[in-house]
Amino acid sequence: MVAGAPTVSNEGFLRPLERPVIAWLVARIPEQASPDTLTCIGVVGTLMTFVGYAAAGLRPAFLWLASFGLIVNWFGDSLDGALARYRQIERSRYGFYLDHSLDTVALFLIAIGIGLSGYVRWDVCFFTLSTYYMLAVLSLIRTNVSDIFQISYMAIGPTEVRFGFVVLNTAMLIYPPASADWMSYPNVAALLWAALMLGNFAVSMIKQIRQLAKEEPPRRRTQTF
Q1: CATH number of the domain enclosing 155
Q2: Phi, psi torsion values for 12, nearest 5 degrees
Q3: Within-domain flag for 11
Q4: What is the pLDDT of residues 56-114, one digit of tens each?
Q5: Which helix (H) or strand (E) holds 129?
Q6: What is the pTM of this model?
């Protein structure tokens, strides 16, 4: 078991742009705001995204609310830990557990909202959610054997995923899909994303198994007479 917080590995392609923005924002957060305050802001963003997607089935303009909710969620989720480190008030295990527990709930709610919107089929929603959870579980398993928590795969992490959702939301507003069948572009995009995550899962799992096999070669049985 990992005693403290693991080392976070995030090599998302937006990271070089995101890092200085977070540093600038953290230094300007009012003293009254705590890391838990930002965590709550992230939860509010999740709920806004859920409502935006769920209502978009009736009025597509609610997709703007879903996109804004993703930005609010990024703000709270990305800055809560950064603020704790900046003020040197980290609670490593508490923060790690709270953050990723809420992420799990957020993903579920967003999938429900997208399903209610009608833009993506329910079965596609939950298939894609399942592949995302598979990758998240793999990251947690890896944390136990390597003390590294990997949150990005093939240069795609949580920020890049949010960015992709915002781009897709904007596309659906400008170019509404003609139908919700298998070949509509929101369904195709979701299935391609699921395929990418499954590929990442397989590659990362095999790579880690090989690494562990080198570090822990089979023991030879000691013969006793």
Answers
A1: 1.20.120.1760
A2: -60, 150
A3: yes
A4: 999 999 999 999 999 999 999 999 999 999 999 999 889 889 999 999 999 999 999 99
A5: helix 122-146
A6: 0.90
